[in-house]
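Why non-specific serine/threonine protein kinase? Reviewers of the renewal asked for a concrete example.
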Amino acid sequence: MKCFSFSNGEKKDEPKSTKTVSVLSTNSTLNEGDVRRSGSELNSQNVLDNPVESLRRTSFPSFSQRSSNLRVFAMSELRSVTRNFSRSVMIGEGGFGCVYKGVIKSAEDPSTKIEVAVKQLGKRGMQGHKEWVTEVNVLGVVEHPNLVKLVGYCAEDDERGIQRLLIYEYMPNRSVEHHLSTRAEIPLSWAMRLKVAQDAARGLTYLHEEMEFQIIFRDFKSSNILLDEQWNAKLSDFGLARLGPSEGLTHVSTAVVGTMGYAAPEYVQTGRLTSKSDVWSYGVFLYELITGRRPLDRNRPRSEQKLLEWVKPFLSDVKKFHQILDPRLEGNYPLKAAQKLAIVANRCLVRNPKSRPKMSEVLEMVIQITEASTETGSPQLPSKSLALGETSVDTEAKNKKRVVDSRSGESGWFVRMWTPKLLRSC
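Here is what the prediction returned.
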């Protein structure tokens, strides 16, 4: 799945600046291509001069007023821990640059060593520098068990040119995307998929609702969800992160950037960004967990390339639903739990963003499904709020722009189980 920039032909009320798309995975997910274009950013001002000073200056006081515990590394130190950036310890490569595995001494206890992932910025000029500053600004002030931890950074200018590096906690179990693909020797179990769904929802809930300011992730996808040693899922890659709308405003207007198959239709069409854009992407991700398929896969037959279009016919008949379940699960899943998870996905994929649930509500739904699926006998339904909304599909590209249309199911087992009346198609 590649990152693309979407152009909607509009320039809203944003200052002119450089916008970047990054790939922050510390593993094999870094082989994605990405496209960059202009737009606004968390660090859109004052990043053209002193690299360290630019970390202290941001157009958002909420960030600069918060303390950061990030370590500042010397380039010589990072050369040592990565064997002079040897390919033998390289664990990923992408548009941002290369990522290397290393071992550093703990700041709290120098006798203890910790594994880290060192991401080195490629030679991409100021766009890459702004992307680097964005990551430091965001991950330097937020902390949550379901967000990848940024340990520190390095900013030096030497005879070799501009050096920009980020040092993260090492995530040994790679990305969720990897484990959903045929590359993984052992597929994720159903129980693990529900855990990943919960962990990812907790991370988004924290960003959206649990701080004094709101952060919109804007590039939520399976390749940006990494797994630690205990298989806890953590959100990564904050190169596209944006502060949510200011008090009194309903949205943030930005240049349209993101990943094909994940971007919310209203954002693609208008450039108006809200936290509900992340909710849409999360709904797409739930169908990834259910089916084991990518949102957009050009290697499949034409009728199966777009995930949301492919699953729709199977949602109208309970007898057909099992056909969309990931065959690598080999039937080892509670069918009712899978059906309910699909309904949560449908709630996230309602065309009207105001009708989508908040991530805290989505999290509660997923928790209820998980708890019910572990009980014996017939599990309780999560809640009436899970009534089927308008499921959504992608339409054909027009003028090189992706426009996502939304249509609701007229009938079928979803409607019979979860809502007393049929929903009208749009």
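The domain at 3-169 is CATH 3.30.200.20 (Phosphorylase Kinase; domain 1). This is the kind of structural detail the renewal will allow us to pursue systematically.
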